[in-house]
Amino acid sequence: MSRHGIPIGRIYGISIDLDFSWFLIVGLLAWMLADSYFPTEFPGWTPSQYWLIGVVTAVMLFVSVLIHELAHSVVAQHYGIPVPRITLFLFGGVSQIASEPPAPGEEFWIAFVGPVTSIALAAFFWEIEPLFANGQPVYALVTYLALINLILALFNLIPGFPLDGGRVFRAIVWRATRNYHRATVAAGVSGRFFGFVMIFYGVWRALTGDIGDGIWIALIGWFLESAAGSQLQQETVKTLLDGHRVIDAMERNFVQVPGYVSVQDLVDQGLTPAKSRFAIVTASGAPAGMVTFSGIREVPRQDWPSTPASQIMIPFQELATTQPDTVLWSALEKMGRDGVNQLPVLDANGVVGVLSREDIVHYLSGLRAIAA
Ligand SMILES: [Zn+2]
C-alpha cells in the first residue's frame, strides 16, 4: 500500500491514516455482527442495540489492530528506525517502518511484540469479561474482542512472510545462517506456501457451503501469497544488482537545452519516445531543471512554439536526484519512495546522466543474460 489514506491523528510522532478500504471493511464487519453473529449468539436484543454494538465492536477491533501496530512501531523507534505512519486498511493495519532492521535481534523483537500485544489484549478482555456478566451487550462486545485478538495473535504467528511470524522466522534463520538473503528467501517461500494453503482451504470452505468465510479466507491467502511473491522477486533483483552502481546503468546520452528554447524545438531536437524520455534544461550554462513528457503534455500543441522549456521544467530543488557512485538498489528504492520514474545523476560538475526505471530493467536483463 503506497497510497496514503486520511490522517486522523498522531501518536508518538507517527501519523495514523485510514485507507478508504477501511470504511468498507468496518461497514461490512458491523453489518455481519449486527445482522447475524450477535443475533445468533445473543438473542433478544432490539435491532438498534445489535447495530450499536456491531459498529462499536468493529471500531474496537481496529483500535486493537492499531495498538498491535503501535507496539511494532514503538520498538522500531526504540532501535532508531523512524516510523512515519501507520495505515489501517482492508486487511488490518500496516506500520510503515522506514528501513529493514539492521540485525536479526532487532527484527525479532520488532515483529514478535505485535502478536504478544494481541495476546495481552485478549487476556485483558478475558479478565474484565465477568464484570459485565449482567449487561449482555457489553459482555458480548468484550467476549468478541477477547476472541478476535487471540485469533489475530495466532494468525500473525504463522511463520510466513509478510506476517509477523514470517519476520520472526526470518530473524531466527538470519541469526542461525548469518545470511540475510537466504533467510528472506526462506520466509518468502514459507509465506507463499501458507498463502496457497489458505486459498485452497477458503475455496474448499466456500464449495462446501460456507461461502462468506470461504471467500474471505481465500482473499487473505491471496493477499499473503502475492505479498510474499513480490518480496521474493524484490530479493532476486536486489541480489542481481548487488555491487552495481548508478554509473553502470545510467543513460549518458540525454538532450540538454538552454531554458529559452521552445517546447517545439525541444521535441524537434529529440525529446521523443524514440530518442530520449527527458531533457535537462540549463540556465546561464548551469543545469536548472528537467523536462519530461508529462510536462509537454500539459502544453496545448499550438502553444509549443511560444512556450519556453524553462516554463514546463521541474526545478532541481524539487527533484529527487542521485550520484554516480550510489548503490543501484538504493536508487531504485528512492524512485519507489518518491514515486518517480527517473533520477538525474549529479556529480560536482553537474548532470552526468539520467537513471530511469527502464535503464535498470535494461541493465538487469543484461546481468541476467550474463548470469544464465
Ligand atoms: Zn503485526
3D structure, described in words:
The protein is 59% helix and 14% strand. It is an alpha+beta fold and 372 residues long. The chain has two domains: 6-241, no CATH class; 246-371, CBS-domain, CATH 3.10.580.10. The strands form three sheets. The protein has a four-stranded mixed sheet with strand order 1-2-3-4. α2 (47-78) runs antiparallel to α3 (104-128), α3 (104-128) packs antiparallel against α5 (164-177) and α5 (164-177) runs antiparallel to α6 (180-207). The longest helix has 32 residues, at 47-78. The site of zinc ion has 5 residues, from α2. Residues 68, 72, 114, 156, 164 line the site of zinc ion.
Features:
372 residues; alpha+beta; CBS-domain; 2 domains; four-stranded mixed sheet; 10 strands; 59% helix; binds zinc ion
